[in-house]
Structure formats: C-alpha cells, structure tokens
C-alpha cells in the first residue's frame, strides 16, 4: 500500500489562542502538533490543509513548509530559494508575491531580501520553462512566505490565500471591527456552547454573534470563500469536493437560537442585519436597538461576550470613565446568574467597572495587547 507523504504546516493565529488552536488542529486530524508564540506547527498529508482551512475557526493562515536552511547573507538565501523546484509547486501562468517576516535578523534590508527571493523563484522558472511568472502584490494566485531568524530562512507556500478571518460574510463593518477568529477564540475561552444563551450588549456589526451562529448551526467558517491551495499543483479537486460535501452535510437548519445582540446605534444594528441577512442567518438570532444600561438581560442565565470601546483615541477616556461604572452597576443589577467576558485594552478596567475579575486572559487584537476579563455575576455585589 502506498503511504501518503506527510507534509509540515504552520497555522498562525492571534496571540493568546495558540493552545486552543492546537486542540482544534488535533480534532481535525493533525499530527505532531507544536504550539509556539503566534501559531501552531503540525504535520499531515497535503489534503489536511483542505479541512483546516475550511473548518478552523481560530487560524489566520495555513502555511505549507517548502524547506529552509542556514544563511550568512542575502546570496545564501537566493541560492537556497533557487534550489527548490518551484515549477513543480505551481504553474508559470500563476501570479505570485513574496512576504518576508523576520526576528533578530542581521540583514540590513528586508526589501532587498524580498527582491532576491523573488529573483530566485523567477530564475528557477526561467531555467525550467523559458518563462517567468508575473508578480502581483495585491491579489496573487500564489503567496510565498519567508520566515527569517538570526541564522536561518524557512520558506512556505500559503494554502489559505486571503486571511482566514475573512469568512466572506462581512458585507458591512463597524468603525473598529473585531477579527472573526479572535471573536471565535473569545467564545471558546468563555466556555460558550450552542444552546447556552449568549448576549452581546454592544454588538456593533455582529462579529461575535456571527461566529456563535456558525458554531450553533455547525457551519464550517470557510464555507463562503475560496482558498489558495486551489492554485497549487498538489490540489486534487475530487478530494476537495468530498471535504466540502461532508461539511455541508453536517450543517443544521437555520432555526432560532438563544443568541442576542443589542446596540445603542441603529446604524450598527443595520450593519449586523445586512451581514446576517446576506448569509441567510438572520432568523437564527435576535437583534434589538437599545441602551444596554436601560435593558434587562434577555434570559435568566447565560454568557455575555462583548468588545466595548477601549478609549484608545484622545478624548474618549473621560467618556469611558463615566460609562464603565454604570456598566458594572448594570451587570450587578440585571445580570445575576450570568458570566460576562469583556475584552479591553485598558488594564484598569476592573477598577473602572468596580467588579472583581475572576480571570484575565491576555489576547492581542491585531497589534493591540488586550485582556479578556471574566466576571461571574451573583446576587448582590461581587466586590471583595
């Protein structure tokens, strides 16, 4: 029996979600799972990347390792890149781009390294086919990633294409939308499960609610988009179709779920409605315009997951200093029996909200360091 070749992959994710992503990858059949800062390395056959790209709620990208080695200067990186059989990986008619990231690299210019890697790929194609592929830095068919440390360079093919948090569902977005995979991670950290009442009292365009709805209806998050692996020579259309059909067969009918959203601003609610309606998921949730401070919780018990304003812009701190104590009073008076998870870049939030945080989980919203604060609400004051 012919054994399937094992490939090495790396899945990136928002910092703080690495352990959760490792568990998710194991559930999808990954082997040799190794979480590191910013992502998880793992192994499996090439078609494993179909399932991970389609089903992962937490990954940002899935990269296929081409190879790597040590270097002393840019010429070493050029020669190492040229040694790989790029024409066996993608067709000369495909456009491509190079993305270089580095940590403690002694090289003076990453732009020059990017140029040398691009030259090496083109030179290998010209040597093999007499032609060279075109570069497209905006919407390339193939993306090549280089990870450079102080003494090594590793090359990857991007199997995802656009970042995986781009589900293809967001028709309208708020001023500072939360990335979908971070929203999914917040739900996992909150321990939320389908069937448990979920409430986002400051839902904006509905990112947290959308991720919860996809989970509740067992809809693969990648069902509405395309992926970069389709442009690689290893791609097998029949295997991919089988993976998609299996995912579609698991989807549940769109029925009302105990998922509730509220926002003070009608424009934000309209954005959320557009997003859910375009996905055919509007009947699954409840959206109401209103001031969170003037409304009761939508059920006797449940989980609140929300991403309120952080006050990172000048002039907002005073406004939030008045809002957060009122939010704390609302949680105490209206949400007994609920557990609230509030994402904030303000590490003084417990002082402002005047509640004891039972847990603080470090997360990164892009480059912004945050904490996911947990508040377990009981009757009366939760302050010590």
Give a concise summary.
With 384 residues, this protein is α/β, with parallel strands linked by helices. It has ten helices and 14 strands. It has a seven-stranded mixed β-sheet. A seven-stranded mixed β-sheet has the order 10-9-8-11-12-14-13, covered by helices on one side.
What is the helix tally? 10
Number of domains: 2
From the helix content, strand content and strand pairing, which structural class follows? alpha/beta
Tally the beta strands: 14
Radius of gyration: 23 Å
Notes on the structure:
The strands form 2 sheets. Strands 2-3-1-4-7-6-5 form a 7-stranded mixed beta sheet. Strands 10-9-8-11-12-14-13 form a 7-stranded mixed beta sheet, with helices on one face. The radius of gyration is 23 Å and the shape is elongated. It has 10 helices and 14 strands. It is of the alpha/beta class and 384 residues long. The model has no long low-confidence stretch (mean pLDDT 93). α2 (48-55) runs parallel beside α7, α3 runs parallel beside α4 (110-129) and α5 packs across α6. A hairpin with a 3-residue loop joins β6 (142-148) and β7 (152-158). The chain folds into 2 domains: 7-158, VC0802-like, CATH 3.30.2130.30; 180-219 and 252-376, 3-Layer(aba) Sandwich (Rossmann fold).
């Amino acid at each position: 029996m012919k054994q399937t070749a094992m490939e090495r992959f790396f899945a990136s994710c928002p910092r703080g979600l690495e352990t959760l992503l490792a568990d998710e990858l194991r559930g999808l059949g990954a082997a040799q799972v190794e979480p590191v800062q910013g992502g998880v390395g793992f192994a499996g056959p090439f078609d494993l990347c179909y399932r991970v790209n389609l089903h992962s709620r937490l990954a940002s990208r899935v990269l296929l390792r081409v190879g790597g080695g040590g270097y002393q200067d840019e010429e070493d990186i050029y020669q190492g890149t040229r040694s790989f059989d790029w024409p066996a990986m993608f067709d000369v008619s495909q456009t491509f781009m190079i993305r270089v990231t580095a940590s403690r690299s002694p090289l003076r210019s990453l732009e020059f390294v990017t140029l040398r890697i691009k030259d090496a790929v083109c030179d290998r194609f010209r040597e093999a086919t007499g032609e060279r592929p075109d570069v497209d830095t905006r919407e390339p068919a193939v993306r090549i990633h280089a990870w450079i440390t102080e003494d090594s360079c590793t090359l990857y093919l991007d199997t995802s294409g656009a970042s995986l948090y781009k589900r293809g569902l967001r028709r309208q977005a708020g001023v500072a939308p939360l990335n979908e995979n971070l929203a999914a991670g917040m739900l996992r950290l909150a321990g939320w499960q389908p069937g448990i009442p979920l409430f986002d009292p400051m839902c904006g365009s509905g990112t947290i609610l959308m991720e919860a709805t996809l989970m509740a209806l067992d809809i693969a998050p990648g069902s509405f988009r395309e992926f970069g692996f389709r442009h690689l020579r290893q791609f097998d259309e029949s295997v991919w179709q089988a993976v998609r059909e299996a995912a579609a067969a698991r989807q549940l009918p769109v029925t009302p779920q105990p998922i509730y959203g509220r926002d003070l601003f009608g424009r934000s609610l309209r954005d959320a409605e557009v997003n859910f309606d375009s996905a055919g998921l509007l009947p699954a949730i409840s959206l109401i315009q209103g001031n969170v401070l003037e409304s009761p919780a939508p059920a006797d018990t449940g989980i609140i997951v929300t991403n309120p304003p952080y006050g990172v812009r000048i002039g907002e701190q005073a406004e939030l200093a008045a809002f957060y104590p009122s939010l704390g009073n609302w949680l105490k008076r209206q949400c007994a029996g609920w557990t609230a998870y509030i994402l904030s870049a303000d590490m003084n939030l417990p002082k402002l909200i005047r509640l004891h945080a039972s847990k603080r989980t470090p997360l990164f919203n892009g480059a912004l360091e945050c904490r996911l604060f947990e508040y377990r609400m009981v009757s009366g004051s939760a302050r010590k």
